[in-house]
Amino acid sequence: MIIVLKKNTAKSDVDSFVGDVRKMGLDVHISTGVDKTVIGLLGDTSKLDPEDFLAKDIVESAERVSAPYKMASRSFHPQNTVVTIGGGQSGVNSCTIGDGKTVPLIAGPCSVESEQQIMDAARAVKKAGARILRGGAYKPRTSPYSFQGMGVEGLKLLSAAKKETGLPICTELMAISELKYFDDVDLIQIGARNFQNFDL
């Protein structure tokens, strides 16, 4: 259930309301905007009536959310999620994603195959205006006999391209055991095949 509080509700009133909800055995997710607060009720709300919440002076609206993706819903989280990639690293250009002002281009080869190839690609995508270099160091393949990527060596080549061009790097993670090699990776991709890998 999502509860929207009225504009400029005092923090003490929000805290009191949240305390009352927690006494019902529910948890809350609070999203504070510029002038409104949205409270998501987490837990079994099936026996609650939204009308009971509307009786409170500070509540503007109350509605049930039955969708399983409510944590990503604009009703539950109305602000944009803004992420800065590559920020705070010497010699690396930062890139903001989700600010609603720019659409950053992420580009590069499907797989990292050689030093020459990834360096040429990095220079080309930077010249074309890309903000992030993407290349697959590990490659998921249907056949175990197909090229599986360069692995750790491919990650080293991506890091070298990052150092030369200043572009943050993005590559796909195939297994949690490989995460220890991703220290210099700025944006980790989880590919379509691995969305079924619940460990990731």
Describe this entry's structure for a reader.
This protein is of the alpha/beta class and 200 residues long. The protein folds into two domains: 2-72, Alpha-Beta Plaits (2-Layer Sandwich); 83-196, TIM Barrel (Alpha-Beta Barrel). It contains four helices and ten strands; from the N terminus they run βαββαββββαβαββ. Strands 2-3-1-4 form a four-stranded antiparallel beta sheet. Strand 7, helix 3 and strand 8 (132-134) form a beta-alpha-beta unit. The chain is elongated.
The overall average pLDDT, rounded, is 88
Unreliable stretches: none
Question: How many strands?
Answer: 10
Regarding quaternary structure, how should these chains be classified? single chain
Strand content: 15-25%
Taken together, the total number of domains comes to 2
Work out the radius of gyration: 23 Å
Main sheet attributes: strand count, strand direction, barrel closure = 4 strands, antiparallel
CATH architecture of the largest domain: Alpha-Beta Barrel
- Identify the CATH class of the largest domain: Alpha Beta
CATH third-level topology of the largest domain: TIM Barrel
Percentage of residues assigned to helices: 10-25%
Distance between the termini: 28 Å
User: Which class do the helix and strand fractions yield?
Assistant: alpha/beta
**Lateral arrangement of strands in the main beta sheet:** 2-3-1-4
Output the CATH homologous superfamily of the largest domain: Aldolase class I
SSE ordering: EHEEHEEEEHEHEE
Overall body shape: elongated
| Helix count from the secondary structure assignment | 4
